[in-house]
Write a structure and sequence with these properties.
This protein is of the alpha+beta class. The protein has a single domain, classed as Extracellular Endonuclease, Chain A (3-Layer(aba) Sandwich). It is 21% helix and 22% strand. It is built from 6 helices and 13 strands.
């Protein structure tokens, strides 16, 4: 009962984060003021896909329900991007737990689930299985190892999972939630790897950026950074601006949006 109550309180607390991201009235090119809600918003194809900085190992793999930038040097994704719609939350398929090497990679170089055995880390989903129950192929592909990172078990099943659930709760018939997440690697002279046949870099931390209510003309956005270790149950401890996530990762998020909107959205910080 206490655990259930705690989950409810976490949900209420995190929902409050986003309501701190309402956009202020902004100056337009003239002398009058224009509210962001006056802008006509329309869907932008691939708006959730970020830009990766030059020099980072990258292979773009497009799946049924997500896009992954795979880092062949570290054998983990740089980022995974997708959106969540009400239609995609219709549960037609059960979770398979069938972790597979990605068939788009050569069999000799594709990470397998055996590389994680005995490592002490979970095969941590970036795009979660619960976002892919609407179609058998989407469910199948979300278990490709290119969608996985070595992740602390407590983080994976705890606050990381809490945020995944909240993203689904923020979806309704008129609202799409856009998500990008992935690993963070800090400068380290002795990075940690796991793997029996392939060297898989263990992330130091993880990021997630979320955009919602864009189609409603009231976009709200937030960034989150999680150390790859057991954490607290409060999402407020991990919330930050998207600008901060960009500073840490080097990625350019939501770059297809109008510049003024992107800048306002990414500079907003949660009032915690």
């Amino acid at each position: 009962m206490k655990k259930k109550l705690l989950s409810v309180l976490v949900a209420i607390s995190a929902i409050g984060l986003f309501y701190c991201f309402d956009f202020p009235v902004a100056e337009d090119a003239g002398t009058t003021k224009k509210n962001v809600t006056d802008v006509v918003y329309g869907a932008v194809e691939g708006m959730e896909v970020p830009k990766t900085p030059k020099g980072v190992s990258e292979r773009i793999l497009k799946k049924t329900n997500y896009t992954v930038s795979f880092n062949k040097r570290y054998n983990v994704p740089n980022w995974v991007a997708w959106n969540i719609t009400a239609e995609e939350l219709v549960e037609r398929e059960s979770r398979t737990n069938d972790f597979q090497p990605d068939p788009e990679l050569a069999s000799s170089s594709a990470v397998t689930t055996e590389d994680y055995i005995g490592s002490g880390y979970d095969r941590g989903h970036m795009c979660p299985a619960a976002d892919n129950r609407y179609h058998w192929r989407a469910m199948d592909e979300c278990f490709y190892m290119t969608n996985m990172c070595p992740q602390n078990h407590n983080l994976n099943t705890g606050v990381w999972n809490n945020l995944e659930q909240l993203c689904r709760r923020w979806v309704d018939e008129n609202n799409v939630v856009y998500v990008v997440c992935g690993p963070i690697f800090y400068a380290d002279s002795s990075p940690k790897y796991i793997g029996r046949r392939h060297k898989v870099r263990v992330p130091d931390a993880f990021f997630k950026v979320v955009l919602r209510d864009y189609e409603q003309g009231r976009p709200k956005a937030a960034g989150f950074i999680f150390e790859n270790k057991p954490g607290t149950e409060s999402l407020r401890n991990y919330a930050c601006s998207i600008d901060k996530v960009e500073e840490v990762t080097g990625f350019d998020f939501f770059h297809l949006l109008p510049d003024e909107l992107e800048e306002k959205m990414e500079s907003m910080s949660a009032s915690l």
